[in-house]
């Protein structure tokens, strides 16, 4: 094509034709240059280590061996022994609990405000000092006792006034012992612990998980220690999360996934950032989330995963390349794990870059036909 343009340039054609030939020759020459319109990833100089003060990077093909190595190096999440070793005992009454105390055959003690009143009106609140008042026996310590211990204490004191008192104690409102939930839970704040022991999955299920929650980074605080739990990996690994029982004072914080994203660029149907809400996210899931590659413009041999490093001057960044021309490559993509902050880039086909260059050089396809028409008119006038 370049030779054709030069031959036209040396013929006896009109100046307009020669001008168009010059433009055509220039564009053909530019096609072989590094410049092309739109985003383009040039990997001609990969891999390289470069001078000491330049970024270090290497191009790594995604192969079955690489996928197997990645799988072997993956850290298996396990439950901390300090969390699973705790076994809840009988419920211990706490400050803020409301107790229903029943003395059989003595309604004046059981419901002094009347049977028609709300349960709280007849309940006994455990005050901040841990004590409560009860008729005949006066002040009695309640906080820190089990329900059975408080029942026996009340019955023993009432025996001075009532023959063989039959006493029952129940908690009608829990407010003394609780865990605190913060972050991206659907419902945050204090969650009371009841007479039924609460497990970690039960608390998460009861609170709900918000849309932007990152379940791979749950922060569990207990007794001054902080544990980071990947709920997604633990569930996938078959860990028995229901072995973790919550106790008074535990804190659960669920961060958002805003700071952990995967950025998808290039020739895909819906480029943009994707929230990284779990540890296990593979390349197929990423490509599927952006509705796949653009069939008309993408280069299936130019699917890259760019993984940065903390210190570009000292560490070697990696650029993984997938040749998606073969169906076998989709099997590899389904096993290649993406990490937070990875950049997935799909390059454009060579003809696509060329067409975009032409479209920028010539604002519309009618430019050539218009120029040809003008040239014909000039030729007609000069003849």
Q: How would you explain this protein's 3D organization?
A:
There is one protein chain. β12 (261-266) and β13 form a beta hairpin. α1 packs antiparallel against α2 (15-31) and α2 (15-31) packs antiparallel against α13. The chain contains 13 helices and 16 strands. The strands form four sheets. It has a six-stranded mixed beta sheet. The protein is of the alpha+beta class. The chain has helices at 2-9, 15-31, 64-73, 81-84, 107-110, 119-122, 147-158, 200-207, 231-236, 283-289, 327-335, 350-361, 366-382, and strands at residues 56-61, 98-103, 124-125, 131-134, 138-141, 167-173, 178-183, 189-192, 218-222, 225-229, 251-254, 261-266, 272-275, 298-307, 316-322, 343-348. It folds into four domains: 2-33 and 355-382, no CATH class; 56-73 and 260-348, Outer membrane lipoprotein wza fold like (Roll); 81-88 and 177-254, Outer membrane lipoprotein wza fold like (Roll), CATH 3.10.560; 98-173, wza like domain (wza like fold). Its main location: membrane. Residues 178-253, 261-346 form the SLBB domain. Keywords: Cell outer membrane, Ion transport, Lipoprotein, Membrane, Palmitate, Polysaccharide transport, Porin, Signal, Sugar transport, Transmembrane, Transmembrane beta strand, Transport. Residues 349-378 form the Outer-membrane lipoprotein Wza C-terminal domain. InterPro entries: Poly_export (IPR049712), Poly_export_N (IPR003715), SLBB_dom (IPR054765), Wza_C (IPR040716).
